[in-house]
Input
Amino acid sequence: MGAYAENTTVDSAKSRVEIERTVTRYGATSFAYGTDESGTAMIAFKMRDRRVRFSLALPRREEFRLTETGRTRTASSQEAAYEQAVRQRWRALALVVKAKLEAVESGITEFEQEFGMFILMPDGRTVYEHTQPGIEAAYLLGVTTPLLELE
Output
């Protein structure tokens, strides 16, 4: 099975605008996006008195130097493959954000359940960034509870 929207022709900028419009339609009062030198893009918005940030790891151009069969791509072919992968990731992010917002709006889940790990804490790190080391340690040490307790 292929990745969602792996053949999309929707430009990344259109996906970012779609995300902004979607979060605004569901009540966001501010929105921002950006990229950094590490190849990570992010979107952030404020909704329900919470600041939310999604980071999107973008592929590196050099990942597309070779075809799936190991042949060297031309520079233009490499750039086209890279751009396709970037478009796919932005489409997937747009889907995730929209699905989470609709789940909250429909009463399936609560806002904090859907966006909890992406909420920014006062130090600028997300809840996920705060809790990930503890989660990892618990699983490495085997200190977990069963999914179902049958007693």
Q: What stands out?
A: The beta strands are 30-35, 40-47, 50-57.
